[in-house]
Amino acid sequence: MRTVIVSEREDTPAAEKGTFILDLSSREVRDCTGCWSCWQRTPGRCASHDLDDFYRAFMQADKVIFYIGVSCDFVSGKLKTLFDRMIPHFLPYTTYKTGESMHVTRYDHYPEIEVYYKGDFSSREARILYEEYLGRVFYHFHIPKVLIHSENEKKERTA
């Protein structure tokens, strides 16, 4: 199984040899400029080449595991930037098959996703919104299987 790890935390578990790791805590990811080159001039490729290796690894992966934190009851700015920059994986056309507007897939295969988040929320509702946001992002990314886990709850259950 080909796995990719996206991490923004220092306590990310060790990965198997050959696993592609995108470390958002140390890697600079440029913001999307909205140039739409990924759709018009160079379909499927971003004009900023800082994520070329990640894009290839993501599309070749069977599973992508995210180890993320909580920032002001939401995802971090770096993770939001990464999500924004994943638009080259889709076509500029939209479909309404699900009853809502969604971009059409560019590829036949998208990897499964596992999310392990760690951090505190100001309320139960904030945690629910965080999880629902992640679920919606990956739903719109046409991800076939998404698992979202709170590592705080996991530790509380096993303690």
Description:
This protein is α/β, with parallel strands linked by helices. 26% of the residues lie in helices and 24% in strands. It has 4 helices and 7 strands, in the order E-E-H-E-H-E-E-E-H-E-H. It has helices at 52-60, 77-84, 124-140, 151-158; strands at residues 3-7, 20-23, 63-69, 90-95, 102-105, 112-118, 146-150. The strands form 2 sheets. The chain has a 5-stranded parallel beta sheet with strand order 2-1-3-6-7. Strand 6 (112-118), helix 3 (124-140) and strand 7 form a beta-alpha-beta unit. The longest helix is centred in the C-terminal third of the chain and has 17 residues, at 124-140. The two termini are 31 Å apart. The mean pLDDT is 92.
Question: What's a quick, concise take on this entry?
Answer:
The protein is of the alpha/beta class.
